Amino acid sequence: MTKAARSVASPRVVSIEDFRPIAQRRIPQSVFDYLDGGAEGEVTLRENCRVFEDITFRPRHAVAVPACALCTRVLGFDLALPFLLAPVGYSRLMHPGGEVAAARAAGAAGTAYILSTISGHRLEDVKSGSSGPVFYQLYLMGGRGAAEAVIERARVAGFSALVVTIDTPVSGIRERDYRNGMKELISGSPLQKIQFLPQVLSRPGWLTAFLRDGGLPSLPNVVIPGKGPMPLVDINAALAESAVTWADLRWIRELWRGPIVVKGVLTGDDGRRAVDEGAAAISVSNHGGRQLDCVPSSLRALPEVVSAVNGQVEILMDGGIRRGTDIVKAICLGARAVLCGRAYAYGLAAAGEAGVTRAIEILRTDLERSLRLLGCSSVAALDRSYVNVPKSWESN
After folding, report:
1. By 3-state DSSP, what share of the chain in percent is helix, strand and coil, each rounded to 5?
2. 95 is annotated as an active-site residue
3. How far is CA 149 from CA 145, 220, 245, in A?
4. CA angle 230, 181, 86 (to 5 degrees)
5. Quick one: which of 326, 395, 350, 328 has its CA closest to 26?
6. pTM listed for this prediction
7. pLDDT value at position 396?
8. For a Cys staple, 259 with which of 161, 231, 358, 391, CB 3.0–4.6 Å?
9. Coil, strand, or helix at residue 156?
10. In degrees, to the nearest 5, what angle opens at C-alpha 153 toward C-alphas 233 and 87?
């Protein structure tokens, strides 16, 4: 066992939450807050996790479950686990291995990885590093020319699906990022950086690894025609110029002949519209509570979207997944699988690839234990009969 693996082994790390303080100690406050924080008052961020408490289980007791089948099928791919690793921007700032390390861990576990546009590693390197399916999450940063180029690169590299995020007409205001100097540290002048440097200097291990990795990377997958890769500057400004509309989805559909996942759906109306525009799957998502605050938790929005779509396409869900029981509850309410973001990103920040591997292991063990305690032999057999849903949800 490597030193990194030992640092996140039991009993030091037993649950996903145990990664959080380790990550906080290892990386600068600005990077941690980017990973950990949400928009405005962080109401939705908190609710994404809390809402799972509203759903309780209805187990079948005195049932022997000698083996549990955790596999599922997403977009035609047989996955060993009903959870995928969600796109997480700035992963290379959390650990030099970044997206390559996360994709490798996902592939080794038999599941899929989704690469963010805001990646510090080339998409070709991420794809070649994984033995499993890799999807590309698309923002229209850099304009249509840059998007056309990256879609073609993803096709040639062998990416399996395109994940189009529709909830970022502008970036949500993440107040922690303003307070901790994230923008200044990434793109500010030396004078602007000065007041925020102590937080970086207080993490010498991270700083050494960061400098050995070459310092601030550009965005190698956002190549602007005639200019080259986009610098890692203020992403908020770049996103404000790259809103995705339903008309854009039709244009993207013409460029990409593989499956498209529409990510960021919170209402039945948008779910039906996504189906009409040719989506192969929908991810019910509020961007981890990082965009518009005070929208419903993803789990609360899930039944409405499932009902509206009525089995026409696969439904995924992301937001607040920290335990195997959370995964079970989402599947019982109609999700084919879930996306996990912070759950593995805390592990990445804490211990690189070893941390991601450990996070996946924790969720897998939680999931199998939960199925056995429910008296259910497979993920495929989960349905609403295994949960109690609050009466106020029944209209969905």
Report:
1. 50, 15, 35
2. no
3. 6, 12, 19
4. 55
5. 350
6. 0.96
7. 54
8. 161
9. helix
10. 55
Residue-wise pLDDT tens digits, 212-253 = 999 888 899 999 888 899 887 656 666 766 788 999 999 999
pLDDT tens, 62-112? Answer: 998 989 999 999 999 999 999 999 999 999 999 999 999 999 999 999 999
Count each helix (H run) and each strand (E run) in the chain, helices first: 20, 14
Residue corresponding to tokens 């949800």:
393
371-381 average pLDDT score: 97
* Residues 131-185: tens digit of each pLDDT: 999 999 999 988 889 999 999 999 999 999 999 999 998 889 999 998 998 888 8
For residues 264 and 167, the answer to whether their CB atoms sit within 8 Å is: yes
Domain count, the chain: 1
Of 61, 95, 121, 287, which is the active-site residue?
287
Other CB atoms within a 10 A radius of the CB of residue 18 amount to 18
Of 155, 118, 143, 153, the closest CA to residue 226 belongs to 143
Mean pLDDT of the chain: 94
Which CATH number goes with the domain that contains 364? 3.20.20.70
CB contact set of 287 (below 8 Å; sequence gap of 6+)? 165, 167, 168, 172, 264
Query: Rounded to the nearest 10 degrees, what angle do helices 43-50 and 298-309 cross at?
Result: 70
Average pLDDT over residues 318-332: 98
The C-alpha atoms of residue 173 and residue 147 are separated, in whole angstroms, by 25
| Bridging pattern class, strands 161-165 and 83-85 | unpaired
Give the span between the Cα atoms of 344 and 347, in whole angstroms.
5
Dist. CA 396–CA 394, nearest whole Å: 5
Q: How many Cα atoms within 13 Å fall on the side-chain side of residue 264?
A: 21
Residue found by looking up tokens 């080339």 in the block? 122
Identify the domain containing residue 261 by its residue range: 3-393
Query: Angle CA(143)–CA(144)–CA(146) in degrees, nearest 5?
Result: 70
158, 88, 318, 26 alpha-carbon torsion, rounded to 10°: 140
277, two tokens: 């525009």
Beta carbons within 8 Å of 262's beta carbon, 6+ residues apart:
164, 166, 249, 274, 277, 279, 281, 282, 283
What's residue 374's pLDDT? Answer: 97
